[in-house]
Automatic annotation (TrEMBL):
Signal sequence interval, chain numbering: 1-17
Domain of life the protein comes from: Eukaryota
Family membership: Belongs to the CutA family.
Organism (species): Neopipo cinnamomea
Signal found in the keyword field: yes
InterPro entries: Ion_tolerance_CutA (IPR004323), N-reg_PII-like_a/b (IPR011322), N-reg_PII/ATP_PRibTrfase_C (IPR015867)
GO molecular function: copper ion binding
Alphabetized UniProt keyword annotations: Signal
Protein name: CUTA protein
GO BP, sorted A to Z: response to metal ion
Signal recorded as keyword: yes
Length: 136
């Protein structure tokens, strides 16, 4: 039972150890921040969604990338369109809330909302993300 308990506690203990190390050294814990990608139909929708995300303090920054071509399957048919892409920088702990919120305001039936954890980067920038997105 001790081994089972130790295995079950490992992720929690490792997380606490990383947070303590980060607090003492000021170093970044890989995966603490994430980038989310959200597709939008046009620039106005992209700006509206980006502003709504920022107003709710769900991100430190949202980049709005210009039109790009997209090919995808929808209801069994190959479709081609143009899209505007949002790149959202936020805390990883906010991804669930961000996704739920965007789905509630996005006009697409199934909007693209995917995220990737940030493994490494400019430590000052990563700290800035954490400082500008409130904790849960």
């Amino acid at each position: 039972q001790v081994v089972t308990l130790a295995v079950l506690m490992y992720p929690l203990l490792r997380g606490l150890a990383l947070q303590l190390h980060s607090a003492l050294t000021g170093s970044y814990i890989p995966g603490t921040s994430s980038m989310a990608f959200i597709n939008c139909l046009n620039e106005q929708i992209a700006k509206d969604i980006a502003r709504a995300i920022m107003d709710k303090k769900l991100a430190a920054q949202v980049n709005i990338l210009p039109k790009s071509s997209a090919l995808y399957f929808w209801k069994g048919e190959l479709e081609e369109s143009t899209e505007i892409l949002l790149i959202v920088k936020t805390r990883t702990s906010k991804i669930g809330e961000l996704s739920n919120y965007v789905r509630s305001i996005h006009p697409f039936e199934i909007p693209e909302i995917i995220s990737l954890p940030i493994d490494q980067g400019n430590p000052l920038y990563l700290k800035w993300i954490e400082e500008n997105v409130p904790r849960d």
